């Protein structure tokens, strides 16, 4: 073999991509007001939707049990929020 040849962990990369796919979701309408719909690729017992304010404060949380969920955020003021579902990357939500 040669010294210094970089190796890439293909199995690790594939696992990360699968995990991201399982944890991916969409929210619509965005921007919107009051009622929003969540469309998730996969949900399991640990799937919790969390909504954070622009300063990182948790302002809403709900256990998600179906791939399609409706949430009512009418109690939140207009502005920019960030949502996570399970271990997903945060999605930006604008409430008008």
Task: Please compute the radius of gyration using only Cα atoms.
Answer: 17 Å
Overall geometry comes to globular
How is the largest sheet built, in terms of strand order? Answer: 4-3-6-7
Query: Strand count, sense and closure of the main sheet?
Result: 4 strands, antiparallel
Describe the structure in your own words.
By secondary structure, this protein is mainly beta. Helices cover 14% and strands 40% of the residues. Strand 3 and strand 4 form a beta hairpin. The radius of gyration is 17 Å and the shape is globular. It starts with 9 loop residues before the first helix and ends with a strand.
Supply the key terms.
96 residues; four-stranded antiparallel beta sheet; three-stranded antiparallel beta sheet; 7 strands; 14% helix
Quickly describe the structure.
The chain is mainly beta. Helix content is about 15%, strand content about 40%. β1 and β2 form a beta hairpin.
